Amino acid sequence: MGNEKQNNVNGSSKNEQLEQYRVDDSGKHLTTNQGLKVSEDEFSLKAGERGPTLMEDFHFREKMTHFDHERIPERIVHARGFAAHGEFEVYDSMKEYTKAGFLQDPSKKTPVFVRFSTVAGNRGSGETVRDARGFATKFYTEEGNYDLVGNNIPVFFIQDAIKFPDLVHAIKPEPHNEMPQAATAHDTFWDFVANNQESAHMVMWAMSDRAIPRSLRMMEGFGVHTFRFVNEEGKAHFVKFHWKPVLGTHSLVWDEAQKINGKDPDFHRRDLYESIENGDYPEYELGVQLIKEEDEFNFDFDVLDPTKLWPEEEVPVKIIGKMTLNRNVDNVFAETEQAAFHPGSVVPGIDFSNDPLLQGRLFSYTDTQLIRLGGPNFHELPINRPVCPFHNNQRDGYGRHTINKGQVSYHKNSLANNTPAPASEGEGGYTHYQEKMEGRKVRARSESFKDHFSQATLFWNSMSEPEKEHMINAFSFELGKVMSESIRQQVVDMFAHVNLDLAKGFAEAIGAKIPEGPGSKVTKSSPALSQENTIKKPHTRKVGVIVSNQFDGADVSAVIDNLKEEGLKPEIISNKLGVLKGVDGKELEVDHTFLTCDSVLFDSLYVAGGKVIDKKFKDDTVYFVKEAFAHFKPIGATHEGAHLLEEIGVNNASGVVTGEDMNTFTSQFINAVSAHRHWDRELV
């Protein structure tokens, strides 16, 4: 279950590696941090019962000093995060492409730690905002820690890391009033977009449904950058990394996302935490796209450009392994917040490309951890510690855990026989790929990086009609919050280069001049980019079951049992907590009241009926149903519930299932839930 121990690559438990750091305080005596047992923890030491507190109260000073320093600076970006432990297994040896040890043996399990996050908001912001999501994975391998630090979007806003501070300054709350929080619907962001048009492709993703995922368990992950695989013979391939969720890639709708932020700002972390606790472990398959070095220039995009993706129809994704998240963290601060990721944490067989955004990240991430975690020893914190031994001549600094023995702390030396000594490549020593490099020192960008619109158009061309409509609405909402008419018009003119119908669609909504011109001539598309083509299954979907007393016990219980057997998660909703009784004596324990939950917190509704207690119960039920209907969710109803759906006129709509035969009803309802949304529904 969720608390079972992990097995690492050499068969021992990762928990055992960290056991000395894990403490259960229950049943223990209270002590100071020095181990001194404390006799009183309610009152400070005073000169008389009503006198002043004394300076010599070392316990008060230790307790208060620690409290005063409990917070560390939050991440500038990716501050709002949640994480879990798990394991990774490769399906087949990748020896042909890379010598990375954890990608060789299908019988070995590599421990992993994954941190998901929003990007723009602070630690206290909501989780279902329109934003990119971080997807950072730490592999604890025999050869050292490998960090795959990515996002749920395969491209980025900028091409060169020197512009990253400018981007973040533009995204963050505006400095004159510190508004808005965790949102890009404001002037400075869109001013940046209009004046840095390399952002066009990323903005298309950010305005799509990908930016409001249904769950962290239903979200793709991407390494974003082009890396290299290098095998034992020194042959290299360019590689991009993909995480493919086993449950498919699914999203919220915008109105629903906004309401969830008010109803449950912890929606995503709660979903992840509860799924792991319930044994519904999130699973992601690892895929790689591979390009031979000699084919580097055979595409209509630059393979090193971080604002470009490699269309899966041109460069297929090879699925090579699976990651399972099966244990929640024991302490969010010690693990999730103190986790330090770095794209430069690699193992033999994985190397870098000349992607200028990646090159800048290789500096920035270490520099960030130095200020956040108080010095150079952040790698010694338990969550960051490798499972393999580490030996070097680094010493001292804030937060040093290692107690190094001996008099030598330099290289080369004779006093310790020149140890620790470098390892040869044959002994597992990391060697950088010997790429031939030439050129003048310049501050410039390759001409091949200057196409900013063709892949933005490819993304638009790849979307289904509902997804296109959602994007137009997203642009309309975001730019509708922009005060400057000039910026609004600049953005309209910019995205007319992507697609004229798109630009016209939101130009009219925001009162801008309708663009003219031929628009883009790009007709290329990539069906893999549309969520319409994702995996669709009902497993772990939450079903709100609305029931009142005197329900048909046998039928309703049978439906609920059948839903559970198919992996759905039915939760009982009524007007008050307690036990509901059916006409035949069957009992149901109520999980939520109408007051403590909302239809937006469920993937679907099943209105089971029963004796309607009062008008408020009926009104609340109608509200839940109409809201779920407006969000295109599947709705099922039997008995009195079916009559209610007929009364409000939604009973014959797409995705609405009613019936009297419980087996037939359940089967049809599960199929409706599997579809996720029913976009062809007309709002009544």
UniProtKB/TrEMBL annotation:
* Reaction(s) the record says it catalyses: 2 H2O2 = O2 + 2 H2O
* Pfam families, per the entry: Catalase, Catalase-rel, Catalase_C
- Required cofactor names: heme
Biased composition range(s): Basic and acidic residues? 16-28
* Top EC class, one word: oxidoreductase
Q: InterPro entries annotated for this entry?
A: Catalase, Catalase_AS, Catalase_clade2, Catalase_clade2_helical, Catalase_core, Catalase_haem_BS, Catalase_immune_responsive, Catalase_large_C
- Signal peptide feature range: none
Q: Which UniProt keywords apply?
A: Heme, Hydrogen peroxide, Iron, Metal-binding, Oxidoreductase, Peroxidase
Chain segments annotated as transmembrane:
none
Task: Fetch the CDD domains from UniProt.
Answer: catalase_clade_2 (cd08155), GATase1_catalase (cd03132)
Q: What does this protein do?
A: Decomposes hydrogen peroxide into water and oxygen; serves to protect cells from the toxic effects of hydrogen peroxide.
Q: What is this protein called?
A: Catalase
